Amino acid sequence: TNFQSITNTSIIQLGFVPCENAPRFKLINLENPVDVSYWLQIRHPTVSDQSPLCLTPIELNKDSEWQPTGSPLLGSSVALTNCWQNSSTLEFIEESMFLKKMWTLTLPLSESDSESSCTFSACGANRPVHQIIPLPPDQVEMCEDLASCITVVTKTGRRPLQVIRLAKSIRDHLGADLPMVVIDDGPDDYPPEVKAELAKFPKMTYFISSCNDLGIGEGRNLGVSMVKTKYFLQLDDDSLLTEASSTSSLMTLVEILDTTDTTLVGGSHRLFENNSPFNFEGFMEFGMVDDMPSHSIYVGSCERANWAILGFPGCVRCELTPNVFLAKTQDVLEIGGWSNELKIAEHRDFFMRLKAKDKKVAFCKEFFVLNGHTDEGIDLLGLGKEFIGRMSHKSEHFRDKRWNRFDQMKRRFHNLWNIQNCILVGEKQLPDWVQNRIDAERSSLRKALQNLSSDEVS
């Protein structure tokens, strides 16, 4: 049968019946759109419970032989096969459900877009890059107390010890706790030793999902929906605050959101092991590359363009930043946050949605956090190396499962945006349209300054 035709009705017509021992598939009931998705366990009556077959996506290999695939395209074939770990646990979701809610796919092309080589629907997200401007004085509400303005949002995958380490670094370097919302995969609870450590942070809300693989997109959306402050600080569970992420440097990010029309201000990542930066920032655009609809990220182009934000030295206009950022809660809720369908590979999608909705992004490299897949510092919790080893082993299982899905999520990401590939362009490249826009903005600013008195210029 065809990959995109898997529905509740067709499963029943194929003769499948519920079974506790068979794999689970996420299906769409097209007869009742309100019932968006649910879990169904199936097997064919001719197959014994002891050796079930699985419904598995398949593709032709180079020898023109059918084989299971962990990265099916829309329209791929499926078949009953022996169960394969990486292929037979995929979620089958009817693609049109994506298209109905992904307004980014139906943005109208501008006249300049329609005249260019970029003619597919997602090109409508190629909006002009506007300068960040100050808010009118009557709209400025200054944040004086970080804890009343900022909530930390963290999605973790069964790694509570890393979360505790992060919370401790916030307390140590900011001098106080911030409200914190943590979303974890479930459904199992944690030992008393871990719960006792979590209880030492009374401002932390630790939510354990009933799903064993909630995913980053849906998890972050759930976390942001629980935020009560006007801003939230996105931090990964394996991040650590440092002297460079002190109250004064964080206040720079806060003041940009307080006083300008910026939606999000990103900071930088540095490796835990050697303190070296690994920033994933840049401008983005859609276009045709080698005759294929593509999404290009000009890595490093924000720093290279140096489109400075007036009054904030070291902070520049950008479109994509690392996953350490401060954002306006309401603005992110308005664009729908992250795509729930993406368990991983959600980073580009989120910033593309911001751009498509004309939300402004800034990047301040002087605010940075340490980041790395390491257990360093966890032993300071006093839980003992044997206990920490057992907890780390469990979290590795979830990480492996997540990375096994990376290719599948990449394909889903491409389907969401109607592209075929994503290209990371080296930091020496700066798109002509970025430079032209910067030159135009600077020319406009110079003309405006010429019409002001010396006092007004000051």
List keywords for this structure.
23% strand, 3-stranded antiparallel β-sheet, disordered N terminus, alpha/beta, 458 residues
Report what the structure shows:
This protein is an alpha/beta fold. The chain is built from 15 helices and 19 strands. The protein has helices at about 10-15, 95-100, 110-115, 145-150, 160-175, 190-200, 215-225, 245-260, 300-305, 330-335, 345-355, 385-405, 405-415, 430-450, 455, and strands spanning about 15-20, 25, 40-45, 55-60, 65-70, 75-80, 150-155, 180-185, 205-210, 230-235, 240, 260-270, 280-290, 290-300, 310, 310-320, 325-330, 360-370, 420-425. The strands form four sheets. Strands 7, 8, 9, 10, 11, 12, 15, 16, 17 and 18 form a ten-stranded mixed sheet that branches. β7, α5 (about 160-175) and β8 form a beta-alpha-beta unit. The longest helix has 20 residues, at about 385-405. The model is unreliable at about 1-45 and about 90-105 (pLDDT under 50).
